[in-house]
Amino acid sequence: MANILIADNQETHFFNDVCNNFDYAAQFTKHDAGLLDQIKSCNSVYRFRFPIRKGNGFEVIDAWRVEHSHHQSPTKGGIRYSEMVNEDEVMALAALMTYKCAIVNVPFGGAKGGIKINPKNYTIQELENITRRYTVELTKKNFLGPSIDVPAPDYGSGEREMSWIADTYATMNPGQGDALGCVTGKPIALHGIAGRREATGRGVAIAVRECVNVGEDMQRIGLMPGISGKRIIVQGLGNVGYHSAKFLAEFGGIIVGLCEYEGAIYNADGLDVEAVFQHRKETGSILGYPGAAQEFKNSKEGLEQPCDILVPAALENQITADNVRNIQAKIIAEGANGPTTPEAEAIFYENGGIIIPDMYANAGGVTVSYFEWLKNLSHVSFGRMNRRFEENSNLNLVNMVEGITGVALTPMQRSTIIKGASELELVNSGLEDTMIRSYHEIRETFVNNPKIDTLRTAAFVGAINKIAVSYMNLGIWP
Ligand code: NAD
């Protein structure tokens, strides 16, 4: 396989891997070769450089925005702040966003952004300058806007950066009523949405729960059905990793291992995720956590400890042909994008495992981003129009039933039945429904076609078919 030589002379292969996965899946579809080529290609790649003041001098920052597919508008995808970021990676992640949105029926094309910095090396003021300048550059070139391209947080960025983007864009577009819909993952106080922060991790946990609930699949890989008591290792205690671990524990799983870049900790009896998180906040490391039975200075050793489920939720290329045979988990749930190389995936399946692929497993973030965008365009929060109405209707019903039956409910029972849904409850309900439906859609494709050998291929097949229909509906293809 010829690797792509990218502009900064760093040889990488992530986009090629995504394209190879696409090509492999495409053989199970019946679309025209030209249409498949159009779906696979990156439509627009914008690479730019801009200066910022640093200390007494200047520094030039490398940045990218890639819009992979315009079969739906706007395009959507996070912005990565990382010194490892490069053009190939941003293209690959943008492509994954296209397929991800199709898988969870979110009507966006795929995009991704990258700023080549290590945020830890910059002051907050400098980060703000970088983010605002990045926003100006995107706006100038028409790579940003509520109907054009809508970024979100990714590795190294969060609500703070999204609010700087929203403010800069709104300032540059006075009078544009929908301006704040130019970016999602904003703080709730700045037109964000309840539940977005934890959405990706919650989605990962729901994906895992759905997978382990299918009895015949669990029998095939030698696990008992159900999440309860499943031993889980999570890599990365950032947004996705922390929330995945938190919700998996809430669903009944046991978090036996946690890995960060400084090392890993393990305890077969379980780790208290919140306590580990606080320990790391206070000491700067997960190592030294008093509840750990074992510690590993080499973080990757943590992935190889006994468990049923491994959730890589940090970076790509963490499970490779070199270490996959040492992984003891039967299920890998990809919280991060691209954590498993194609070679490692083939070996893992040969050894009787299941991989819940990134483009589905971590789609909770974009799903709730979609809800946030809808909220921004409609200028009203979910539940505002109907909550009180629902509560009054429920109250009338309860009063009537109590009157007819003569049975009085306790105050707790009454309030549980009467309560109308909050924005958070509606968001979580929409997210759960999306993750459950999408899992079974992918699984059905997998089960109904014996030649399809992985859930990833099944997910790609479903995505390709949906995107092909969009192109046909646009009239671009006959
Ligand atoms: P984050 O910056 O919040 O967290 C990443 C964590 O990984 C950090 O705690 C970091 O210290 C840790 N880490 C870095 N290198 C590591 C290593 N070698 N070993 C172990 N841990 C390491 O980022 P995030 O938003 O949680 O994103 C993580 C992954 O999830 C990325 O691949 C991202 O593309 C993907 N993702 C994120 C979202 C989202 O909503 N944030 C949505 C979909 C996919």
TrEMBL record:
Residues 193-475 form the Glutamate/phenylalanine/leucine/valine/L-tryptophan dehydrogenase C-terminal domain. GO terms for biological process: L-glutamate catabolic process. The record marks 154 as: Important for catalysis. PROSITE patterns: GLFV_DEHYDROGENASE (PS00074). NAD(+) binds at residues 200, 239. Substrate binds at residues 76, 100, 369. Keywords: NAD, Nucleotide-binding, Oxidoreductase. It comes from the Bacteria. Pfam families: ELFV_dehydrog, ELFV_dehydrog_N. Belongs to the Glu/Leu/Phe/Val dehydrogenases family. PANTHER family: GLUTAMATE DEHYDROGENASE, GLUTAMATE DEHYDROGENASE 1, MITOCHONDRIAL. This is Glutamate dehydrogenase.
